[in-house]
Amino acid sequence: MAVPLCCMNADSRVKSSRPVAIWLLIGVGMIMIQVLLGGITRLTGSGLSITEWKPLLGTLPPMNDAEWQAAFDQYKTIGQFKQLNFDFTLQDFKFIFFWEWLHRNWARLMALVFAVPFAYFLINRYFVKSMIKPMLLLFLLGGLQGAIGWIMVKSGLNEENLYVNHIRLAIHFIAALGLLCYVLWFALKLIIPADQVIVSRSLKTITTRIIILLVIQLIYGAFMAGLKAGPSAPTWPTINDQWWPSNITSDWVSNPINVHFIHRALAYTLTISLIYWWWQARKIQGGSLFRFYRPLPMLVVLIQVILGIFATLYSPWPATLLWIGVAHQFTAMLLLILLTIEAFLIRSRSFQQAR
After folding, report:
1. Cross-strand partners of 346
2. Helix (H) or strand (E) run with residue 199 in it
3. Residue (of 101, 112, 326, 90) closest to 221 by Cα position
4. Partner of 10 at 20 to 30 A CA spacing, among 44, 289, 304, 336?
5. Cα 55–Cα 96–Cα 329 angle in degrees, nearest 5
6. Do 117 and 93 touch, CB atoms closer than 8 A?
7. 33-36: Cβ within 8 A, 24+ apart
8. Cα 200 → chain centroid
9. Torsional class of 191: left (φ above 0), alpha (ψ -120 to 50), beta (otherwise)
10. Which candidate, 17, 10, 6, places its Cα nearest to that of 352?
């Protein structure tokens, strides 16, 4: 297989880019799983169960009764236990510990899956020179994401707060999605040939604006999760039987009702925008990939809205909300991935000029 146009290099010893692309796409899948594990951790209230950050020594869970009791005793010192989970047994603690432990260990596994193939590809000359620095940046971004996660967790390890800070949660979430898009874009450069790229300045502008709107929506989705804002208005289509909530304040970041209202409004705006995007995109013939992906963002956003409605209605019931919430988060990631692919396929100028 020839190296794609975007990765051509004068060094003829560079090998096929297909294994590198497969490796990157595996990374995309692993990041998606990690984000979903983060969602489960949040919805089960497991995020503060491990009160220490041991990047290497924390790989193994407690191995005996004494170690389990010691970990449980550490959890008992924070406000979440004292004010919320004071009736927890050791078995209850083990349940929430598992999800946080799995979330952290999946991150360790991702680092291993990155580092080992990276060394192999580097030694065996699968990379062109221009790819090495972005790959190293990718590794650093992954490490930074772990540090952001610990800073987020630490915000709840005190006697005052019952949960992690919702703003830090949003930063952690968006950083993970940014890493996801970074890896995906790199893979797309290796697997999508130049003849699949289309040129449409107007559609590129619309796509970019919709992605910005989606990012804002995702931030407010994280605010919703961090503030537990769903149960504050478990009705639809109105918000507590009001189209414009009477208890709206000037705080658009930390007030649950305000955040809930914005999140819904952005969802409707995003849906209308994607329907408009599809209407404009259908006028462009494009390549086979563009024609295949063209209707998908609109379909996914409709599913996303339906799941959001059910998440709202079932927000007072945590057991049901768990799986609806995870599905809602999955479709949000899927929508971001589809729009990232569209952004890659649509250029405001020729592919060669855009390189």
Report:
1. 198
2. strand 198-199
3. 326
4. 289
5. 85
6. no
7. 33/106, 34/103, 34/106, 34/107, 34/110, 34/176, 35/173, 35/176, 35/177, 35/180, 35/329, 35/333, 36/326, 36/329, 36/330, 36/333
8. 28
9. alpha
10. 6
Q: Supply the pLDDT for residue 8.
A: 38
**Dihedral sign, Cα of residue 38, residue 43, residue 44, residue 45:** positive
What tokens does 152 get? 């987020």
Of the candidates 146, 145, 138, 140, the one whose C-alpha atom is nearest the C-alpha of residue 187 is 138
8 Cβ neighbours under 8 A, 6+ residues apart: 128
Q: Is 234:178 a contact under the CB 8 Å cutoff?
A: no
Strand partners, 347: 199
- State the pairing for strand pair 346-347/198-199: parallel
Nearest-angstrom CA–CA distance, 300 and 148: 29
Structural tokens at position 26: 């595996």
According to the model, what pLDDT value does residue 15 have?
A: 60
Q: Which residues of the chain have pLDDT under 70?
A: 1-15, 350-355
Tell which residue, 147, 164, 176, 167, has the closest CA to residue 47. Answer: 164
pLDDT at 80: 96
Runs of H (alpha helix) within the chain: 18-43, 65-75, 79, 90-123, 129-154, 166-191, 201-227, 256-281, 288-293, 296-313, 318-345, 351-354
Distances (CA, A) of 77 to 44, 82, 85, 92, 283: 19, 7, 11, 16, 61
246-250 contacts, C-beta under 8 A, 24 or more apart: none
- Joined together, the tokens standing for residue 196 give 């699949």
Q: Residue 173: its pLDDT value, please?
A: 96
The Cα 115–Cα 117 span in angstroms is 6
Domain ranges of the chain: 1-191, 195-355
Minimal CA–CA distance to 344: which of 304, 286, 305? 286
Which pLDDT does position 135 carry in this prediction?
A: 85
pLDDT of residue 256: 95
